[in-house]
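In this notebook, the sequence line spells out the residues, with the fold written below as integer tokens. This is how one looks.
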Amino acid sequence: MGQQASRYLVVSDTVYTDGHGDPVRLVLNTRTSRVSTLGDKVARTLSHGDCGTLPAAVSDHLADLRILVPEGRDELTDVLDEQRARSRSAASLNYMLVPTGYCNLGCEYCGQVHVRGKSSANHRSAVRDRILRAVHRPSTEEIRIGWFGGEPLLAYPVIRDLAGQFVEACATAGVRYRSRLTTDGSELTMRKLRVLYEECGVDALCVTIDGFGDRHGRVLGVMADVVRQADEFPLLRLTIRGNLELANLDHVDAFIDVMVKAGLNHPMIEFDLRVVPSWTNDVAAPRVARQRFAAAEPRWLRRMHDVGMVTRTLIPGQLRGPICPAVTRSAEVISSSGAIFSCTEHPLVPQHEQGDVLELVEHADHDRQRPAGQYDDWHDRINRGEQSCAGCVFLPVCGGGCPKHWGEGKSPCPSYKFNIQQRLDLEAARAGLTPLLT
């Protein structure tokens, strides 16, 4: 059987010279997230699709890299089947918990309604019982708990109580336990962080920075303390996420300066810049913001690399699980209201709290997974051609993005779709390749 170029290849527009002075191009295989350096002639052959002219030894090498695949191979079906399998697995169960509906910041872009004390008297025990029952299912190999909100640390005693029981139950059952907490950092202290890390099993902390204003000074001080005492948190994955809107896109360079001045350009911290989604029907401003972000992002990434700030990988990584809770029955979101959802953008949003509740945690059957949500057939929709994702080279790493946003007419395509060539140029520079002057 003959070989053909995979449909999931991105070939660099730029021709570089390697250490021997030979012309080469970079080729990204989005099915493996691997970037290969290939001779210019071979790379052009892949782009033109005339792979039958390649020498046998070269073809064998490219097949090993999955750059060449058997002729007639239906790779779209392969990719969707792989993503379906991850979504249907019951081995890893993911619970996103909203321990309080209140937030002390109330960022303008947020569509949540933040009020105190909406949880019922039985809410905490129902959440506990549901997750402890899941721990002891025979199929369960891993429990993942995400704490977010609202501002979850306003419910710090609740987190400490529940997480302690989850950690103990998983240890007794021999089940892996992972936990991530997303916070604005306003309530974070070193004492709380030690408890979260040592007692509550939080091994991933995401601190969101909105607005890039002076109000974040105390938060950055705590982050600087964490860096100075990094040896106390050897397994902690720490992310600082800069939430960008159209109004603050021009402040990213200042943000970088502030992070460096605070000493946060440290290997312990990964930085993630992203345009925050719109929670309203206004699609114009977010669309412009995404366009401007994609155009400027390569320069920011280069600068951050130059000053020692660790960023999310230049090259999009492989999907390790479902793209989001909304496409898998093994994940669910439990709001402080007691409602179980499939989508992380539904809790605390009035129309969703009223119209998209799958069931109430206090009435749920804890021996089964959540009821079907509106996006559980996501991969079938792509396969039927209902989404443009079916023809996109980035489907293996993106998975289609956010089903909810597609349904609302808001494209959730990642920035790398629009600036991958600049990213490949940065990758080439880091590998010691130089653009070929013509």
